[in-house]
């Protein structure tokens, strides 16, 4: 009863601020959900992660966050014959969408961790059109019973947490890197709420993490830890770390600094926990109170400066050799995302995709010319 009352009051507050909200905030407000009155068939809204029948299992779930703003209804009409938008008017249609590479990330996590539920949380509320399963990429991902697509309302998600008051202040939406910083906000909030595993959507899992320690992150370089792969227990040391991360995020947030609020947070927190500024010394879990910090070969064997090695055919064998002992490969989508990968050209990336997201890979080679 209390929670229902809170949700009602929250929706009233959201409606009040809608007209004075910048566009960046409007993107994430549930009250500005898909304007789909012109569609012949009405879409079904994704379940909210907090209101779904089955909640994530604390400490035993994998989370991805999709924080971009939606495409327009006009783009839906190109894919779905049931769409009939008015001409000369752009309506926002928040429909479910995953790029091929995002879908590969999600499938690889589900493929290697069959006992673990995998959640994709959409920060900008999304709808599922009646025939969305006709999308071969989504169909490939949803063929796994342990994959769940959910909406997440940031305000109700943050309610009763240390991040709620800060979120209502609006600083997040004035950031120069809103999508990235919303992702940073949600990853630490999710780990505070549930524990478990957070993964970036530009990763490919190469082997199961189900038997790994309950608390770990990975080093990205000799100077910084990375926030693209993190696993916290929902209680004990893991929850202590998540509380420190949430506190650091709120206290040190900088909207004009891309890395400060993601890798910067976990690096600062673990420097305190491990009582050292030197990353190499953090590899000893005893020094870090039982928290595991893995060297870069486990999750980030190929650095961001070397991102082309994933895609260049002549680098294939060498690159695959370098990730032979890795659990995850990070593709650095911020700089590699627009690099075209033609179907039929063999590379480390296409080899990883074929072996670790086989359903998505098959959908791509059967229906598209580029990955």
Automatic annotation (TrEMBL):
Keywords: Glycosyltransferase, Golgi apparatus, Membrane, Signal, Transferase. Its main location: Golgi. GO terms for biological process: glycosphingolipid biosynthetic process. One of its GO terms (molecular function) is alpha-1,4-N-acetylgalactosaminyltransferase activity. Residues 1-20 form the signal peptide. Residues 236-363 form the Alpha 1,4-glycosyltransferase domain. One of its GO terms (cellular component) is Golgi membrane. It is found in: Golgi apparatus membrane. InterPro entries: A1-4-GlycosylTfrase_dom, Glycosyltransf_32, GlycoTrfase_DXD_sugar-bd_CS, Nucleotide-diphossugar_trans. It is a single-pass type II membrane protein. It comes from the Eukaryota. Transmembrane segments: none annotated. Belongs to the glycosyltransferase 32 family. This is Lactosylceramide 4-alpha-galactosyltransferase-like. It comes from Glossina fuscipes. The lineage of its organism: Eukaryota, Metazoa, Ecdysozoa, Arthropoda, Hexapoda.
């Amino acid at each position: 009863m209390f929670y229902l009352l809170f949700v009602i009051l929250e929706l009233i507050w959201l409606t009040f601020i809608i007209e004075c909200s910048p566009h960046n905030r409007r993107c994430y407000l549930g009250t500005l959900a898909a304007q789909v009155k012109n569609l012949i068939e009405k879409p079904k809204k994704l379940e909210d992660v907090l209101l779904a029948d089955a909640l994530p299992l604390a400490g035993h779930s994998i989370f991805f966050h999709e924080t971009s703003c939606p495409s327009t209804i006009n783009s839906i009409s190109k894919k779905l014959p049931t769409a009939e938008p008015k001409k000369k008017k752009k309506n926002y249609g928040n429909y479910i969408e995953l790029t091929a590479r995002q879908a590969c990330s999600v499938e690889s996590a589900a493929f290697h961790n069959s006992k673990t539920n995998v959640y994709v949380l959409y920060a900008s509320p999304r709808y599922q059109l009646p025939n969305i399963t006709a999308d071969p990429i989504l169909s490939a991902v949803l063929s796994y019973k342990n994959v769940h697509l959910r909406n997440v309302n940031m305000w109700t998600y943050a309610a009763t947490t240390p991040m709620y008051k800060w979120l209502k202040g609006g600083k997040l939406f004035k950031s120069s890197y809103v999508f990235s910083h919303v992702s940073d906000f949600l990853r630490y909030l999710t780990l505070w709420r549930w524990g478990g595993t957070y993964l970036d959507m530009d990763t490919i899992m190469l082997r199961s993490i189900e038997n790994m320690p309950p608390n770990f992150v990975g080093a990205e370089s000799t100077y910084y830890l990375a926030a693209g792969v993190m696993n916290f227990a929902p209680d004990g040391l893991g929850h202590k770390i998540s509380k420190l991360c949430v506190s650091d995020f709120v206290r040190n947030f900088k909207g004009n600094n891309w890395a400060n609020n993601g890798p910067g947070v976990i690096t600062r927190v673990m420097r305190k926990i491990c009582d050292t500024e030197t990353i190499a010394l953090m590899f000893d879990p005893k020094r870090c109170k039982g928290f595991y910090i893995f060297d870069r070969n486990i999750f980030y064997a190929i650095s961001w400066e070397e991102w082309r090695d994933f895609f260049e055919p002549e680098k294939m064998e060498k690159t695959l050799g370098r990730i032979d002992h890795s659990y995850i490969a990070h593709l650095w989508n911020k700089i590699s995302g627009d690099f075209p990968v033609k179907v039929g050209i063999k590379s480390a990336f296409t080899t990883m995709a074929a072996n670790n997201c086989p359903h998505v890979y098959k959908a791509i080679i059967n229906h598209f010319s580029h990955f």
